[in-house]
Amino acid sequence: MVATKLEEAVNGVMNTFHQYSRKTKDWDELSLQELTNLYKNEYPIFLSTCGSDNPDGFIKELFDKYKGQNGQVSFNNYVKILGKTANIYHKQSHNDMTCDDRR
């Protein structure tokens, strides 16, 4: 059976997460530096519009909101961050250029 585009997209999200999270011993979680590297390398257009004044501060704000008690972002919480990012992209596709994911 061939994977659908959506299945390939989900695998791409997971593989990208693992590409950046395997830099330290906690391979299934992201440190602040790993999340920063991921966003700067994988979402440069997003950061140029939503974090243009202070991309590091924008990423740190996301990190602080979604890190666990161990100070890392789990895959589950990364998916929540990605959901916020996708929601902002969706709003921008409807010409709402704000970087707030709330309606």
Describe this entry's structure for a reader:
A two-stranded antiparallel ribbon has the order 1-2. The chain contains five helices and two strands. Helix 1 (5-21) crosses helix 2 and helix 2 (32-42) crosses helix 4. It is globular. It has one domain (28-103): EF-hand (Recoverin, domain 1, Orthogonal Bundle), CATH 1.10.238.10. The longest helix is centred in the last third of the chain and has 19 residues, at 75-93. The protein is mainly alpha-helical and 103 residues long.
Outline the secondary-structure elements.
Blueprint: H1 5-21, E1 29-30, H2 32-42, H3 44-50, H4 55-66, E2 73-74, H5 75-93
Antiparallel strand pairs: 1-2
Helix pairs in contact: 1-2, 2-4
- Give the number of DSSP strands: 2
Strand residues, percent: under 5%
What is the ordering of alpha helices and beta strands?
HEHHHEH
Q: State the separation between the terminal residues, measured CA to CA.
A: 39 Å
Q: Runs with pLDDT <50, length 5+?
A: none
CATH architecture: Orthogonal Bundle
- What structural category do the secondary elements indicate? mainly alpha
The CATH superfamily bears the name EF-hand
The major beta sheet can be summarized as: 2 strands, antiparallel
Quickly count the domains: 1
